[in-house]
Design a protein that fits this description.
Shape: globular
Distance between the termini: 26 Å
Structural class: alpha/beta
Strand content: 15-25%
CATH superfamily: Alpha/Beta hydrolase fold, catalytic domain
CATH architecture: 3-Layer(aba) Sandwich
Number of helices: 8
Strand order of the largest sheet: 1-2-4-3-5-6-7-8
Length: 231
């Protein structure tokens, strides 16, 4: 994604990489906690080759985007909605991983007309974390390429998720594919199955790859996404 531009949306600077034909149907790629747009390089290249216009933003607190200190999932949702508005995109396909799936699901439930199709890789899990996640109070000794406060904010929200994050799944209208990582994932696969069952008409598939499916088995992930998007 050589074309990277900054967008001032929802009071935050978002860096967003794009690839593919300018007139291609848009697909927005949302990365995981601690990652950035670069995590989608292989997926973006494959979809761009298929004629999609891929957009991969750095979520607030990550990569080259701003570090506002507010890392509520709802604020990240509002960033995505504002980015779509700024780009003049009325409807988009969302492909998301881990943290990104929380944001994508909120977008899909709160502005259903904006989401054409939805791919959720290893998430969301709108259940209290068990065991509860440790909430860090300060950064470790090594520098990290993101705002460390994101870790604390996400831990708090995973420990006590808003009821809307579960209830609203039933309001998603976009065709949805949930991709689970199987037995090597640290996430509870039975909870991913509950999420898929909650979303009307959603399909659940498992690619035995652990949590980082599109990194560990990119060919299998891309093949599954391609098949879903072409259906």
């Amino acid at each position: 994604m050589s074309d990277v531009r900054n967008h001032q949306v929802n009071g935050v600077r978002l860096a967003c990489g794009t690839a593919g034909p300018a007139d291609g149907p848009p697909v927005l790629l949302l990365h995981a906690l601690g990652e950035d747009r670069g995590s989608w390089s292989a997926v973006a290249a494959a979809l761009a080759a298929d004629g999609w216009r891929t957009l991969a933003p750095d979520l607030r607190g990550h990569g080259d985007s701003g570090h506002p200190g507010d890392y509520a999932f709802e604020a990240m949702r509002d960033d995505v909605l504002a980015l779509l508005d700024a780009l003049g995109i009325g409807q988009v396909t969302l492909v998301a991983h881990s943290l990104g799936t929380v944001v994508a699901s909120l977008v899909a439930m709160d502005r259903p007309a904006a989401v054409h199709r939805l791919v959720l890789e290893e998430g969301p899990l709108p259940f209290p974390a068990d065991p509860p996640r440790t909430v860090p109070e300060k950064p470790g000794p090594e520098p990290v390429p993101y705002d460390w406060r994101v870790l604390a904010a996400v831990a708090r929200q995973r420990n006590a998720p808003a009821a809307r994050h579960w209830d609203g799944l039933a309001e998603i209208t976009a065709p949805t594919l949930v991709i689970a990582g199987g037995q090597d994932s640290h996430l509870r696969q039975d909870q991913l199955a509950q999420v898929a069952a909650r979303i009307p008409g959603a399909r659940l598939i498992t690619i035995e790859a652990g949590h980082m499916i599109h990194d560990t088995r990119p060919a299998a992930f891309i093949s599954a996404v391609r098949a879903f998007l072409r259906a």
